[in-house]
Design goal:
Elements: E1 9-11, H1 12-15, E2 19-22, E3 27-37, E4 42-49, E5 56-60, E6 64-67, E7 72-74, E8 81-82, E9 89-91, E10 102-105, E11 110-120, E12 126-132, H2 135-141, E13 144-147, E14 153-154, E15 158-161, E16 165-168
Parallel strand pairs: 2-7, 10-15
Antiparallel strand pairs: 1-11, 2-3, 3-4, 3-9, 4-5, 5-8, 6-7, 10-11, 11-12, 12-13, 13-16, 14-15
InterPro entries: PRC-brl_dom, PRC_barrel-like_sf
Domain PRC-barrel: 13-76, 97-165
Amino acid sequence: MFGKAGDSLRTFSLLKGMPVYDTNGDLLGEVCDIVIQDNGKVSDLLLQCKGLLSKKQKIPIENISSFGEDGILLENKDILTKYIGMPSEYTMNHDKPLIKKNALSQNGVHLGLLDDVYFMEEMGTIVGYELTDGFFSDITQGKRVIRTPHPPKIGKDAIIVSVTKLRGGKSHDEVSELPK
């Protein structure tokens, strides 16, 4: 798919709601968002912690022991810190949200609205974007995924992405492999 052999890919939509445990098997909470730096890397996962206050905690991606199919493991729960949005950080849904933001090519062509991101688990590098043109278009034509070697330029109103490969437009494309 994307990346090199051995690299594991995730999408935000697959991580959302995934439980996070410490190595003692204690549930710490669920993933509610990802933090994306302005250089286009996923730096942290946001965790909705259990309890009365339901506060959001930040987990640096490099401190995650393992990403499993059914949960995420942390070696040490002491690495959790309270989430406070920084000016150079974006999220998919919460502080400075990117979801449904216009995506444009470097030539100014409207590609669609950002719906999801593909990133390598170990490094947090975003390697692709899933775009939508709306519900009815997704049903009739499918979502598009663009593969990109360069970080995006994130502006107030749009994301500028370097387009190398584009696929989509057919319903059977949604899980298919991108061209190399």
